[in-house]
Write a structure and sequence with these properties.
Layout (H helix, E strand, L loop, with lengths): L6 H5 L4 H8 L4 E10 L3 H7 L7 E10 L2 E11 L18 H7 L4 E2 L3 E5 L4 H6 L10 E10 L2 E9 L2 H4 L1
Antiparallel strand pairs: 1-2, 2-3, 3-7, 4-6, 5-6, 6-7
């Protein structure tokens, strides 16, 4: 994986939220979108849900030093918004990662990685407020599981993360 300066951010299995809070005293979560929509084709299979069924899609920007650092795209199937995760649809500007990593019973699949190019919809969502376009962005993805409930989280690392 030729990910340059992003390598350690990409492979870190701990909480990205916790790591960003350590590095940035003014860390905050900026909600971008919270809607029920159909998951992307490559999201439905690992979550074992139909591409025809709506899931809750949460998109936020993780900020530090008043800069956009990481774009997070989460897919929460309706069936997963029960039990201990019933409140996940109402997180607002609270980080999803803090909730997921706070419970030791939550399991995480191995991280997968991808270069996103400008034609990819997540690249477009991640860069919608940026003036400068980059040839590609690095992203990582995993599925969190608790009692048969699954949530997929994709994190897109933005160039400002390395500039700080």
């Amino acid at each position: 994986m030729m990910s340059g300066g992003y390598y350690h951010w990409l492979v870190d299995k701990g909480s990205l939220t916790a790591r960003l809070k350590q590095k940035f005293s003014d860390f905050l979560v900026k909600p971008v979108q919270l809607i029920y929509a159909k998951p992307f084709l490559d999201e439905a299979a690992p979550l074992t849900i139909s591409v025809r069924k709506n899931a809750l899609i949460r998109e936020v920007m993780l900020m530090g030093d008043k800069q956009e650092l990481v774009f997070a795209h989460s897919v929460l199937p309706r069936s997963s918004l029960r039990g201990e995760w019933v409140g996940l649809s109402r997180l607002g500007n609270r980080p999803l990662g803090a909730t997921l990593f706070a419970n030791p019973q939550v399991k995480r699949t191995p991280l997968t990685y991808k270069k996103l190019y400008p034609h990819h919809v997540l690249y477009q969502h991640a860069t919608s407020s940026m003036n400068v376009r980059h040839p590609y962005l690095w992203a990582r993805r995993s599925v969190f599981t608790l009692n048969c409930a699954n949530i997929m989280v994709t994190e897109v690392f933005l160039p400002q993360l390395l500039a700080t």
